[in-house]
Structure formats: C-alpha cells, structure tokens
Design a protein that fits this description.
It is a multi-pass membrane protein. The protein is mainly alpha-helical and 791 residues long. It contains 27 helices and 19 strands. Helix 3 runs parallel beside helix 8. It starts with 7 loop residues before the first strand and ends with a strand.
C-alpha cells in the first residue's frame, strides 16, 4: 500500500442504521454513503458496501463523526467541495442519438461543419468588439480623470495645499472602484477576478455555477472598466479571456436563457461536448484581442484551458482568434481617425523593439533573471495565498468586500502620490518620447517627475514607457521603490471583489525590476548593455511566468506582442527558468485559487504514487440502479431524495436482493427529469402521444428543471417507464481491479462524468466520478486524500 495519510476501509453500516436514516451525498461523491432505504424496496436499488475514511488527525473516527461531513466555508486547499457538478463531455449514444445521426445526409454533416466555422467567426467578431469597447471607454474616462487630477496638482504645487489634490485623486479612484465592486458583489460575484481559473475549471469538465451567463459578461465589462479607471494595480487583458468564453457559450447555443430569447438556430450544438469546444475558441479569441496574438491565443487555450483537443478544433480556434484581433484592429483604426490603418492589433501594444541585438554571453544573465522572476513569483503567490485565506475567513460579506476594494483604491492613490512627492528623479523628455500626463511637481521647468510616468498612467502605457523610454529615463532608486511598493499593491489587489486581471500588473512589475537590472549593467560601462529596454522585456516575461507558470503560450504571446522574433529564444529560456524555480517553492497563482475554491480539478496525470490503488478502493458505492422498465414512483423518490443527489444511474438486469445486476446501460438525472416532464409512460403509449425527440432534451439544456417542479399524481406513480430507448447502452466500464492511474487516464482523456466499475460477471459494484479521482493528490508526505465539504 502506498504512503497515504488517510487509509480506506470497507464496512457495511446499514445494519446498524435506523430505517430512513441517510447521509449526505451530492453529485455522486465519495463522501458519506447512502444505504438502501425501506421505501425503495420495490425498486432495483441495492447496497454494495461503504467506503469510509479515517481522519488524518485522529487514530480512530467514530461512526457518527464519519457520517458528518464538514459543513463550512473552505479555508485551505485540503478540502474538496461537494457543490460542484461535472459536465457531460461524453456523447450519450442512445437510440434517439443514433436515429438522428443516421437520418442526416452527408450534406447535413457538411452544413453542421460550416455552422461551426460561422459560430467561431461570430465569436471572434463579438469578442473583438467587446475588447474595442472596453479599450475606448477606459481611454476616454481615464484621460478625463488624469487631466482633472493633473490640473489640480499643478495648481496646488504653485499655491500650496497639495493634500487637497491627493484627496481628490483618492476620492476619484475610490468612487470608480466602489461602483465596480458594488456591481460585482451584489449582482454577480462570479465576475470578480480575471475569470481564468473558472474557465480552466469549465474546460476541465467542472460545472462552475453562472460562469458563462450573459449577466456575468455585462458585470465583467462594467467592472473591469471601473477597476482600470480607478487606478488599481490591475489590467483589462485577463478578463477578456472570460468575456470571450461567455460570448462563445451564448452564441453557440443560438439563444439566451437569461433573456428567455430563443432564435431557433444552432440547436445541434446544445450539449456540453460542443459547447466546450466553442468556449475554448472564445478563450483564445480573448487572448488574441488582449495581446494581438492569435497564435498565442490558440496555444493559451491548449496549454492552460482545454483538456480535450483535436486538429479541426485547432483550425477553428485559430480562425476565431484572427477574426478577433482583426475586428479590434479595424474598429480602433476608425476611432483613431485612420480607417483601414490596422496598426493596433491588441489592447496592449508593447511597441516595436527596433534593436533586437543581444550577445551570446547575455543569455546567462537572462536565465538568472528568469530565476529571480521565479522566486519573486513564488513569493507573490504565497503572499496572495495567505491573503486569500484571510479574505475567505473574515471578509466574506459583501459590504466588507466593497470596503476593502475602496481601501485598496485609496491606498494605491495615496502611496503613489507619496512616492511622486518624495522623488527627486527629474527627467527631460527625449526627442521621440511622449509623456501622456507629465507631472512637473518640484522639478525644474521643461522636466517632469520620472516616477509619475509609471504611477500616474494606465498600466499598459506604463509598461510601454519602461520598455521604450531612452536610457537614463529612470534612476535606480526610483525603479527600486516602484518595484517594492507595486509588488505589495498588486498582491493585495488580486483577489478583491472587482473584475481585474493579473497579466499587466505582472508585466509592469517585472519590467520595473528588469529595467533596474538594465540600469545597473549600463552603469558598468559596457556598451552592449546600453539598452535597458530589453532587460525590462525579459524581467516582464520572468515575472509573469513566475506568477502564472505559463511557458509555450506566453513565449509566443510576448514575441507576437513585441513584433520581434529575435527575442524568442531568450524569452523562452527566461520563462522555462521562472517556471522551474517557481514550481520548486509554490504552485502557479491560478492553480492556487482553484484549490482554494475546493474545485475537483483533474490534472494531466494521476498522482505518481497511486499505482497500488484500484478502482474498487476509490469508487463510490452503493450505486443506485434502475431496471430497463421502472416504476415512476421509484424514480421520483430517488430523484427527490436530497440526501443522495446522484446524477448517473446504471441500468441493470438479472439482479437479486443480495446481488447487483449486470450492466445494461446508463441514464442521467437530466434525462429522467425530461422524461417525467413529458410523461413518457408505458401506459400512455396507446394514446398516440408525440414521440419524444432529441430536440426535447436540447430545449431543456442547460437549465434542466428541478424534480420538485414536476407534478406526478398518485395514479401516475403506479405507471412504468421504459428507459431502454433513452439510456446509453454502451457506457464505459472498468474491472474493479483496474489501477487508479489507468482509471484516471481513461476518465480524463475521454472527458467522462461517470465510469462504471464491474466485477468478473459484468455486475455493477461501483461508480467512479470526478470527485473520487480528484480527492487523491500528491502532498508533502506522499499520497493524501482530501476531505469533503458541503460549501
């Protein structure tokens, strides 16, 4: 047996349990197991056994303590939430599906394929349009704010009373952030943050509530505008990935469940399998619009998002990414007064690095910068981890979350002003250097305060200034103070109840300390180090890679955004080094937040030391099964039982009271609800009612009605339902002695929701679900088992 902190034991506790007593089990989870209830004795339900867990902190766990699962807000990554359900990424090949596919002509399949390309084009167009809208609104409102504050600062420098100007700046920032935070906290909390962890979970097969709703998109767009204009250490690029995913989820379905509007188009794609592919395209289109990097968008969706991939999907995602960046480029050219001049492919423009020269002996310096970025990124993630735990424990009420966001906005303005006030770094603008909002403060005429070019500006323009301002634009003390303060400001900001991303703050932070290194090397007197801009670029890549731990996609994104492939090799080496070093100390930021949300996320591989475990030891049991022909009352009772909210039910035959039946198929809770809603009873067959079609199931997708909303009379409870036509007759099964890594690989690669475990006679002995696999992970002391919590 492998080294595991929780041992598993098999027992049969139903004999000691009072009739009607049950324990909580949500979404086929391996928590407390439910024994067969007396009122279901007429059905085909049976008991197999019970998998109990012994807590790590105790030598022995009593039966009462075992039956009680923790019911609290998750406060660390050692919990696994029962509230998350799985998506059905495996097609249900029942008779209805096979009949529909068989009736489609070759031309029909071609039309479906054309529709996929049309949808991807629409996704790219709408995502680019949203990005353009956000960019223009932020530019207009931020310019108006900075001009007002600049006018008062310049006035009070002469007349005295600079405190009034800092108060004005803090009030303006706080007002914008308060508006954005209020909307997020009250109307749609899922819109907080960048949304990338949630989209990663969705593409992994986890159903995150409300993550791809239209309301979420509206709140996201409004919130990110307020956050960026409010001067927080945030960027608008990360939320574009979430926005693109929401657009894709809506467009691909041809309707809006929020607006209750159905256009009666794209009905074929109303299932999780198709929707997942389009959401992948939307995420890639968001990256493309943010950075002007269509290839980087495809690779991002592959590396960070999509769990399942194929060649045709790659082409469609690339098409959506190209349309997205073209749309943004085209409408930006109209706004800039140069229609057709496509010079702004993304929300952020790093500018052209004309001189791409670097020497071979600079590569070790770049690698060392990657190591620095990995260490700083690990420190950033660790600090944000403890801050997030504090928020979960003590700042979980909406009004407290809004107050914290306001305090962060006011503190950011105050700290920025203090640093600008105390700085004596005065610079004269270069010949080709344009400063958008130059603040003179106490500098001589014709000069401006250097640190104000990074603090008193939008983050995107600050990054560009650090990349391209001429050597000597910033002294080393200015860059050090900015790096030190911005590190803590950005760390505090990520996780606030505002819509914001971490991409641009990471780039800005890395560009600052990268340029600091460039300054120190330039002062050494060696002519090859005369361009600190390239070190700012490497520092930006190292810091972002150290925080989010992306390699392949981020390399391509940086190369596409800079427009200089010469730096491709150094950027790749920097990112690889930052990831290796950062992974030694802590996980990536997105992975940390996924664990803190207790999401049953499945990695690429099973834990390395899990080969000694078999399917029998990790499966959920007992399994609730049905006959091919089952009583309506039995089905209603099973679905209505809140203490055992199963979502998949094997169909069996040849079962007895003491032995499970042989597997015949699998049917889902959502299918049974649709059958009950349409009263598909055997006794009604002679009434010549309309034959149920696959369209009826698609119309109910994705918000299937709860069982409580379906009325079944006492007479109807005595009727029967023939499930043969609707069940999946060929579900995936594994023998009970199959090793855990093999089960994991099959489950993960095929995107399954349920995997039936059978014995040598093909009898059902258990069911493997996502939480059965996700609860095992490799910890500091070997293989560990997560606790289950209803949150």
């Amino acid at each position: 047996m492998a080294n595991i902190t929780k041992r598993v034991s098999w027992s049969s506790l139903c004999e000691d349990r009072a009739p009607g007593e049950g324990t909580a089990l949500l979404d086929d989870t391996p928590g407390a197991r439910r024994c067969r209830r007396q009122e279901f004795s007429g059905g085909s339900l049976f008991r197999i056994g019970r998998l109990s867990t012994i807590d790590l902190d105790e030598e022995v766990t009593s039966k009462e303590e075992t039956l009680k699962q923790p019911n609290e807000i998750p406060h660390n990554e050692k919990l696994l939430s029962l509230k998350y359900e799985s998506l059905d990424y495996d097609n249900i090949e029942n008779q209805l599906f096979l009949e529909e596919e068989g009736q489609m002509s070759p031309m029909g399949f071609k039309c479906v394929e054309i529709s996929r390309w049309v949808i991807c084009g629409l996704i790219g167009f709408l995502t680019g349009l949203i990005a353009c809208f956000i960019d223009i609104v932020v530019e207009i409102v931020a310019a108006y704010k900075y001009k007002i504050v600049k006018r008062y600062i310049d006035q009070f420098v002469v007349e005295g009373g600079l405190c009034a100007s800092v108060i004005l700046w803090a009030i303006l920032n706080s007002a914008f952030v308060m508006a954005g935070s209020l909307v997020v906290a009250i109307f749609e909390p899922i819109a907080a943050g960048s949304g990338i962890p949630q989209i990663k979970c969705y593409l992994n097969g986890v159903k995150i509530p409300r993550v791809v709703r239209l309301k979420t998109l509206v709140v996201k767009v409004f919130g990110v505008i307020c956050s960026v204009v409010g001067g927080l250490a945030v960027g608008k690029e990360g939320p574009m990935i979430h926005s693109g995913a929401v657009v894709a989820a809506g467009v691909s379905q041809g309707r809006s469940t929020s607006l209750k509007k159905d256009l009666k188009i794209f009905e074929y794609f109303r299932r999780d399998t198709e929707k997942r592919d389009f959401v992948s395209a939307g995420a890639a289109a968001g990256v493309s619009a943010a950075f002007g990097a269509p290839v980087g968008g495809v690779l991002f969706s592959l590396e960070e998002g999509a769990s399942f991939w194929n060649q045709m999907l790659t082409w469609r995602i690339f098409f959506a990414s190209m349309i997205s960046t073209f749309t943004l480029n085209f409408f930006r050219s109209i706004y800039n007064g140069n229609p057709g001049e496509l010079a702004n492919p993304g929300l952020i423009n790093f500018g052209q690095f004309e001189s791409g020269a670097y020497k071979l002996y600079e590569i070790p310096i770049f690698i060392c910068m990657g190591a620095v970025g990995g260490v700083l990124g690990a420190g950033f993630n660790a600090l944000n981890y403890w801050l997030t735990i504090f928020r979960i424990r003590y700042i979980h009420r909406s009004y407290l979350q809004v107050i914290e966001a306001i305090l962060a906005a006011a503190a950011t303005a105050t700290v920025s002003y203090i640093l600008m006030y105390c700085s004596d770094d005065c610079q004269t603008p270069g010949e080709h250097q344009a400063v958008e909002y130059p603040l003179q403060l106490f500098c001589p005429d014709g000069q401006h305060n250097s640190i104000a070019t990074v603090f008193f500006n939008t983050p995107e323009r600050s990054v560009r200034n650090l990349f391209h301002n001429f050597p000597g634009s910033y002294n080393s003390l200015t860059l050090f103070l900015f790096t030190f303060t911005y590190f803590f400001l950005a760390c505090w900001t990520y996780g606030l109840t505002v819509s914001a991303g971490v991409f641009i703050p990471s780039l800005l932070l890395g560009a600052a300390w990268g340029r600091l290194i460039g300054n120190l090397l330039t002062n050494s007197g060696v002519s090859i180090f005369a361009d600190p801009g390239k070190y700012a670029l490497m520092g930006a890549a190292a810091q972002l890679g150290g925080i989010v731990r992306m390699t392949l996609s981020l390399t391509v994104i940086m190369v596409e955004a800079t427009g200089n492939v010469t730096y491709g090799l150094p950027i790749m080496l920097v990112l690889m080094t930052s990831k290796i070093v950062g992974d030694y100390f802590a996980e990536g930021l997105y992975d940390i937040h996924i664990k803190l949300q207790s999401v049953p996320f499945l990695g690429w591989e099973a834990p390395a030391t899990s080969h000694s475990f078999t399917a029998r030891e990790v499966m959920s049991s007992p399994v609730m099964c049905f006959n091919r022909t089952e009583k309506v009352g039995t089905i209603v009772d099973v679905l209505s039982n809140t203490s055992a909210k199963h979502n998949g039910f094997p169909i069996v035959s040849d079962f007895t009271t003491n032995e499970p039946g042989r597997i015949c198929g699998l049917i889902l809770r959502s299918q049974l609800i649709v059958l009950l809603k349409h009263k598909v009873f055997v006794e009604r067959a002679q009434l010549k009612q309309r034959k149920l079609l696959l369209k009826d199931f698609r119309d109910a997708y994705p918000r299937f009605p709860p069982i409580q909303s379906i009325h079944v009379s006492q007479d109807e409870r005595e009727c029967t339902m023939d499930l043969t036509e609707f069940m999946n007759p060929t579900p995936y099964t594994v023998p009970q002695e199959t090793s855990l890594p093999r089960v994991f690989k099959l489950f993960r690669a095929l995107g399954l929701r349920h995997l039936v475990v059978v014995d040598n006679e093909n009898r059902v002995v258990g069911l493997v679900t996502r939480k059965d696999l996700a609860r095992y992970h490799l910890g500091k002391h070997g293989l560990e088992e997560l606790q289950l919590a209803q949150t």
